[in-house]
Amino acid sequence: MDNCIFCKIVNGDIPAEKIYEDGDIIAFNDINPAAPVHFLLIPKLHIASLYETDESDQCLLGKMLLLAPQLAKKLGCPDGFRTIINTGHLGGQEVFHLHIHILGSSERLPVMNHHD
Ligand code: 5GP
Ligand code: ZN
To answer: Which helix (H) or strand (E) is 74 found in, with range?
Structure first.
């Protein structure tokens, strides 16, 4: 996709601090980290969001999720981390190329705010 910032990272058109790459997936540090460890796992294929996935993406999605704990450990989070996938405008998604946030810290992450 021409105007997708994450496709540009995949293609090497804009730089990123890459921490993992294989044929299907890359992971790189978030430019605006919300925790001491904050990286993004994305498919190389442009998929706008979880809404745009179907059975043909099952293997890719599983592969991404399996990588999360491996990379979290490698980046110094052996005792816990958080995964977030924002989906759609109401889900807080800003970049419409599917990504899993992985957040970690040496302290316990803040609890999620509860709806009243
Ligand atoms: P979303 O709100 O879509 O779930 O999250 C998008 C994330 O991408 C944000 O945490 C934001 O900081 C990150 N981000 C946006 N543009 C760039 C970029 O050009 N490079 C990197 N490394 N991260 C980005
Ligand atoms: Zn894209």
So the answer is: helix 58-74
More confident of the two residues 1 and 75: 75
pLDDT on residue 1: 76
Residue ranges around ligand 1 (CB below 6 Å): 5, 16, 28-32, 86, 92-95
Q: How far is the CA of 4 from the centre of ligand 2 (A)?
A: 5
pLDDT of residue 115: 86
Average pLDDT for 49-72 = 98
Element (H, E) at 7: helix 5-11
Decide if 99 is catalytic. Answer: yes
Specify the fold of 5-58+78-104.
HIT family, subunit A (3.30.428)
The overall average pLDDT reported for the chain is 97
Measured in Å, residue 33 CA sits from the centre of ligand 1 at: 9
User: What pLDDT, on the 0 to 100 scale, is given for residue 108?
Assistant: 94
Report the alpha-carbon distance of residue 88 to residue 96 in Å, rounded. Answer: 8
Catalytic residue among 38, 89, 97, 99: 99
